[in-house]
């Protein structure tokens, strides 16, 4: 009997290699995975939809690399996708230079515009007036610095792991105006079995409100409240087809295998014109959910048994 | 093979014969039923609990014969009972006299205190000052008038059907200060299969709120609202064991066989310390319930199938 | 200069003297008051409306003497009235007899039907089978027993204070199937300044829901919830003019002088077709209300000052 | 008598000139205004806080130039600011070239990364594989193209108005993968009198939920619902100080001068630990708000008069 070798997994991601998204990818991709950099978030997701990648890694919240609204919209713009995991990456930059460059040599620094916006205070205070040379990613400037003969700048701001990757040196490893910042990334795949329930899970939904109905948002949220479910994120997203209509992108605490999440999905499906299930997955924080009284699986089961007894004519 | 003759049904009721409760009984009891008058509502219900009667007929709302709060309390004070039907009886009295008596002969009138209170204006206007002689029921005065040699009064106020029953004559058949009044009665039996769903049904519940929780009433009502269920009656009833705690006696529109009623029962069972199901039965008004969008059985089934597809890994 | 003697106050009440309502009257009426017994609750209130009485004392909840629904309806059926006080009276009966009568002599007992219903168990257990002779009130049987030569019964069930009033003796002073029962009475007058705020107050309202609006009850209750106000009583009352429409009789915790009660009244007035204010008065329990965070007068004042600063262009 | 010449207004904006933000600025800035380009949104706002600018123009929603989350956060990170106006700018790009350049000459195109992401499909379909050269803004590429001897690219994607500004030519004026896209900008100033009420207004708030309170979001939204106020935008924003706490950035329909908005502000101020008022201003859509029944100023005034009559002792 011969062993069948498993094909390596293919991961698309908001490229190139060396960005924070890439750091998030490294948290979840097995070592032998095939890495497919994509030019933007919609492209990374398209590769999963077309079967050219098994998973995509993209930013979803507070990104220094853009793509957040793009991600929310691209997730539902096309055939069905589901989130399989979320990853947190601390956002601090390294000031990468070629070996031998000193701080006082730096006149221009290359990085992505968002990254620049998050480090400008630090740079101004420590290096004085230097010029920003925009790059297509947080890794692209470092790459150019390493490879080009005349890059036009003396330093690049990039993720710490990228410095060595590019054969550069770091003059500082925690460049950030707002220390402690973290960005959230997600791993996206085709619909299929959910990651197993851990007790510290999240479920992401896109819910559209019915037309013309005042108090519709409150009614929708009552579906969650009636089952004691907290939301960790809610964002209204305009719907293209008409002024003043909104869908809501929601992260709810719980897993599709939790009875209370199933109950809220049935309720939302009943009263909302569209409910898109975007996956249940372990929350990156790992904080266990303590269900409110009356909302555990056992409570739901007891409730159903109560009704079944009544239907059977027993009080 | 010989046919088995079905035993006649036994009905207890807030007696005696000839009252409005008796008129309600006649709406539901087959002609060959055995009628068991009871002295009060708790006794009528006790006869069902003990198996001495199959059903009890008692007033539940706006009664001229008392017993309403008594009924609400007695329904849940003891082993389980369920409401099987409700009946409406228009409340108008006949002014019953012995043959030969004229209006101007009347000096005293006998009837139940509640009945007197509802006719006093009519009497004062048409008969002038006459004395009230209280009786134990709306039929008892008429009975005494018919049977006693010296009843001590010349007339009795009783339900129209009672006049002939007692061999009396009526001087007027619509004595009432508030014409058009109607009283609601219920038929109560042991737990068992519910009356079939008609699309115009009611479900009666007693729901206790959790201790010490502000906004508890609102949370409880959200369970109904989240399933689009209207309430046709709600009454707070103090709970004996502590000042300031309340249970709620509720009539909800719908039948135990409606998915939305099952869903609300599961929800209430989860969050309330006590939920007593007191029966689903056709509403006497016969007005069909038009479920709000998203609350029909088909909507619930579609919602469950949606969740099942997700659990099976299909989007 | 000569002192002006104040005219004595006139109190109508659900008569006659010697009933539990009379005991409630004695809790609030000054010793020199003029007492005007009325035949029923509407009449007692009518005497206040017409100016023939200053106040009326009538039962409002769990009465042994009837009149509760009658009271709720009569309060709003006519010109405006307001509740000025509430009183609690413990419900236990005395078994009154003429001097010399022994328990074993008793064959028939007279009292009001409601009273009889509340003592029947006690009587049956201790006296065996005795006959009930209905009376127009809980005092009337005792009066007849004291005054009539041949009353037709040997005992009467009446309030304890009535025994001596009628010159009778008591064979037992705590006749009751349900010991510890209490009935609530109210003192009603013409609109005018409210009784002073005590911090343990109630406000009684009758609120009509808008026609044809699903979830109307929830919206109405949200007005209370949005100001953190608990309800100690709520009862749906059918409105005569159409099937399926309801008004709600409500006791809310708080006083008209509380900002949160004023705010809820403004809110109800905005969204409900009819709001009848039936008075703010000290609760008989005397239990102090602890306002929920953010609902004290100071919180409302701080909120208004916040808005005034904004309107003045200061942040 | 001599005329006093008014000093020209100073506008900071997310620079440089020629971007979509600049187009938004042109909608509101008088012709003689002083324009102060800022490197990022926090800087643009800082210039207003420091008094170096009277107003700042920055993107607030769906921007192609980034800065949206940055704007939400920067508005409340520092001394008080208020939104004075909002402006909509249609997002379509011009493909700008030096006179004489033809489509087939284009090998590389410069623009801001976000702009590139929104046009890539259009470009790929019509120009085939071309290289993206990132720029610091949607105007910067065009500027370099116009001014540099060897810019390194043959075309730039920029706002239509920028083509002529830079002395370039346009090969197409509606480059966009998603035609009809619109971005929302705001004009921000120091706290002061609000822009006059137009009947088509918005109010922007940042509201923090109380700690540790389940259902807190629902309670907060009930404050809006109890006054019939619709929200046109809601976004949860994590609060730095603790995992799992959220503030909500909200656009509500209505003006600080509307009674219902004042009432909701008082309510929020009472129950939320922090409420930041960020201005009332005419909505760019100009769609008039039709207040729900019972929520007009007249309804609030009638409600207050009702309470005042009660306080004065009149029913």
Automatic annotation (TrEMBL), chains A, B, C, D:
GO MF terms held by the record: prephenate dehydratase activity
Pathway: Amino-acid biosynthesis; L-phenylalanine biosynthesis; phenylpyruvate from prephenate: step 1/1
Domain of life: Bacteria
Designated name of the protein: Prephenate dehydratase
The keyword Lyase belongs to this UniProt entry's keyword annotation: yes
Every ACT domain range: 205-282
Keywords attached to this entry: Amino-acid biosynthesis, Aromatic amino acid biosynthesis, Lyase, Phenylalanine biosynthesis
Gene Ontology CC entries for this record: cytoplasm
Gene3D superfamilies per the UniProt record, alphabetical: 3.30.70.260, Periplasmic binding protein-like II
E.C. number(s) listed in UniProt: 4.2.1.51
Domain Prephenate dehydratase residue range list: 10-190
InterPro entries linked: ACT-like_dom_sf, ACT_dom, Chor_mutase/pphenate_deHydtase, Preph_deHydtase, Preph_deHydtase_CS
Essential for prephenate dehydratase activity, annotated site positions: 183
Catalytic function, reaction form: prephenate + H(+) = 3-phenylpyruvate + CO2 + H2O
GO biological process: L-phenylalanine biosynthetic process
Database matches in NCBIfam families: PRK11898.1
